[in-house]
Structures are given as C-alpha cells and as structure tokens.
Amino acid sequence: MTTHLKNKSILLIITGSIAAYKCADLVRRLRERGAAVKCVMTQSAQEFITPLLMTSLSQQQVYTDLWSLKDETEMGHIRLSREADLILVAPASAHSLAKLAHGLCDDLASTVLMATDKPVIVAPAMNPMMWLNPATQDNVTILQQRGIDILNPAEGDMACGETGAGRMVEVADILHYLENRFQLQQALKGKRAVVTSGPTYEALDPVRFIGNFSSGKQGYAIAKALAMAGAETTLVSGPTPETPPAGVRLRRVMSANEMLEATLSALPADIVVCAAAVADWRPETVAADKIKKGMAKPQITLVENEDILKTVAGLGKKRPQLVIGFAAETANVRDHARKKLLAKKCDWILANDVGSGTGTFGGDFNTVHLLQQGKGGKISEAAWPKMTKQDVAAKLVGEIVKAL
Ligand code: CTP
C-alpha cells in the first residue's frame, strides 16, 4: 500500500458522541498504514467506548486525566500537544467544538488543544439540529478562520432516529483526507502562488451590478490546498460569502478591473491559478445616481474587460512559471477548453461543465477535464472523475508539485 501516513504521529482526541465507536476502526487503519496513534479520551467519550479498547488497538497508553500525577510531572498536556505531527478530534461533539472555539480548557483534551502548535483537524458528529444550530455554525466559522480544518459531517440516518447532516465522516474519508494532507505537506515551500476566485460585479449604478453565479468554492479550495502545501498564497477574491482559508493573504475585490490590478500587484509568483468567473464585459458608464423606473428605458453599452489570465500568461520575463486557467462551459467543453488554452497561452486549463443541470456553480462537487500543454506545444488531456472541490484542489496541487 503506498501511503503518506508511514511514521507519522497522530494524536486522536475522542469526545462524547456515539460515533466514538468508529475510532476503533480508525486507529486500526491508521496503524496499518504505519502511523503511530496516541489517544486522549474525554470523560464523555469513555461512556461510549473504553480506554482499554483504545489502548489495545493503539498499543499505546491512553490519556484521560489532566490531573494524573505521573503524566503531569512530565507535563503531559504540553508534551502530548507538541510531539504529534497532527491532532485529529474525532468525533467532535457540539460541546467540544464550542469549547475549542472559545478557548475553554477544563480537561486534558481541551487543554492539549489550547497548548498545541500543530495542525488541528476536527470531524464533528452530532444530531442534525445541533449541527445546524447557529451557535454550532458560528463556532465552526471561528475555527475555520483560525486554520482548523473541519471535515463536515455527512448526511444520513442518525443513531438518534433523525435524518440529516450530522454523521461523522466515514473512516475511509478521514484516511483519504490525511493521505492528501501529508502528501502535500511543505511540497511547495518557498514558492509563491496567486489564485483568483469567485464572481466579479460590474456596477451599473450605486445599487445595481451585472454579476454571475460563481460561488468561489473551487478557488478558495485551491488557495487553501496551495497554502497547506507550503506556498505563500494570495487569494484575490470577488464577492462571496465563503470563509477565507487560514494562512492565505486575502485581497477582496469587486470588479474585473480591480481583480486585474490586485492580481498584477501580487506578482511575482511561481504559480497563478485563475479560477474566477470574471465578467467579460462591464457597463461603459456607471450612473452616478440610481437609475429610476420612470426614466426612458435604459440602454446599457458594454465594453470588454481585460483578460487577467491572458495578461498574466503574456507577461514575458515576469511570467509566472505555471499559469493555470479554468474553462467554464455549458457545451463542447473540451473543444472550447482547447481553444482557450491556445488563445490565452496559459500552461494548463481545467475545463468544467457549469451548465444549469450540473450543480457545479455553487455546489460542492466538480467534474473537470485537465488539459496540459507541454514544452513542445503538445496538449495532453486527462478526465478526472466527479469529486469534491477540495479533492479537485488537492489533485491539482499534486500536479503542480510534480510539474515544479
Ligand atoms: N478569465 C480572466 N479574465 C477575464 C475572463 C476570463 O482571467 N476577463 C479567465 C478565467 O478566470 C478562466 C479563463 O479565463 O480561468 C476562462 O474563463 P471563461 O469564463 O471560461 O472564458 P472566457 O475567456 O470568459 O470566454 P467565454 O466567456 O467566451 O467562454
């Protein structure tokens, strides 16, 4: 089995949720891949599974008590929080998320989390109403803003008899996430990256604009994956409610012109990924006052916006080493993408179908076709299966690492 988990050290914090039973399998699978796993269990976690079970499976001491004399003479909570490569909180109950978001530390698990300088990954598990509760959602946003990765719970039947989003992600998904994460770790250290993302809004008057349905999810996921791989990353983002990934320099813009300016001023870079759905045109004039209904039917004259991707790819000596674009199409996806690759002179294009039935715009999944132009001008193509936008981002960053 090829694995990036070999010799990695993982601290698994188990909190109080029925999904704690999945930790038994999780620990076995992690150890199978060569990872060492130490477990910390909260009091509530021990109501669901026993420390004895986790000791046997991990073949390591299980830690439960902040006040245990032996562990604390060795400064147990500090040591535990520092010696792991990564801390995984799975399952994370609503209560443990709240404590982590607000810095409460009244037991070993929460104290370790406060004392750590290592990446923290959280896999929540709770009743769907608890998950959707604004208090929980706000806590999740706080944690994301601090760079804590949340493995969003899956939808399905819950142990409590209700249905909805709240089930802890499956063990296979956690392993998949960890494999991706360790594979990319630090692979782009020393590199600079710029990502454009989201829609642009082109003002008509002080209250109206021409825009598009782009959510920015794909671009945000790419920026996050590049940062996780160690690249110094600037995210030039059009208007979107997405939570900015931690560790990324965010430049918020509104119009295509602002996006162009922000992108060029973020250079030099080694990698530029233009994932934004940039408006091709803007109104020639922006009315100073709100256009009123009673007036003559407005005639809007549009002028073309400069193509950011094409401009960056044509920078000559200052051209980034790898310039990557997207092709948002609703028909003849590959043909159009090939033409865009040649016309814009970028290195790669990720072509995706954004037709109304696909759910790509605004959705969590994407089906892309990667076109890569090699040194001699030869174009190679690869069809990627449908996957989450996070997985597309991780796979793309994997390709970038290979290419650089
Ligand atoms: N793009 C850009 N600046 C623009 C227009 C597009 O940087 N003014 C980039 C997009 O970010 C994407 C690529 O060009 O990486 C292709 O964008 P897309 O909207 O698919 O195509 P267009 O070039 O706008 O052509 P069309 O709208 O005719 O499909």
Name the descriptors:
34% helix, Rossmann fold, 8-stranded mixed beta sheet, binds cytidine-5'-triphosphate
How many domain units? 2
Mean pLDDT: 93
Instruction: Indicate the radius of gyration in whole angstroms.
Output: 24 Å
Shape: globular
Per CATH, which architecture of the largest domain?
3-Layer(aba) Sandwich
Kindly provide the name of the CATH class of the largest domain. Answer: Alpha Beta
* N-to-C span: 26 Å
Structural class: alpha/beta
Main beta sheet strand tally, sense and closure: 8 strands, mixed
What share of the residues lie within helices?
Answer: 25-40%
Uncertain segments are: none
**Main sheet: which strands, in order across?**
13-12-9-14-17-18-20-21
Topology-level CATH name of the largest domain: Rossmann fold
What small molecules does the structure contain? cytidine-5'-triphosphate
Could you give me the name of the CATH homologous superfamily of the largest domain? CoaB-like
The total of helices stands at 15
Task: Describe this entry's structure for a reader.
The protein is α/β, with parallel strands linked by helices and 404 residues long. The chain folds into 2 domains: 9-185, Flavin prenyltransferase-like (Rossmann fold, 3-Layer(aba) Sandwich); 192-403, Rossmann fold. The chain contains 15 helices and 22 strands. The chain has helices at residues 22-32, 45-48, 51-58, 69-73, 76-83, 94-102, 108-115, 128-132, 134-145, 171-184, 217-228, 256-265, 308-313, 333-344, 389-403; strands spanning 9-14, 36-41, 62-63, 86-92, 120-124, 149-150, 154-157, 163-167, 192-197, 202-205, 208-210, 232-237, 249-252, 271-274, 281-283, 302-304, 322-329, 348-353, 365-366, 368-373, 379-383, 387-388. The chain has an 8-stranded mixed β-sheet with strand order 13-12-9-14-17-18-20-21, with helices on both faces. A 6-stranded parallel β-sheet has the order 3-2-1-4-5-6, with helices on both faces. A two-stranded antiparallel ribbon has the order 7-8. Helix 14 (333-344) links the parallel strand 17 and strand 18 (348-353). The longest helix is centred in the last third of the chain and has 15 residues, at 389-403. The structure holds cytidine-5'-triphosphate. Cytidine-5'-triphosphate is lined by residues 196, 256, 274, 276-278, 280, 305, 307-309, 325-328, 340.
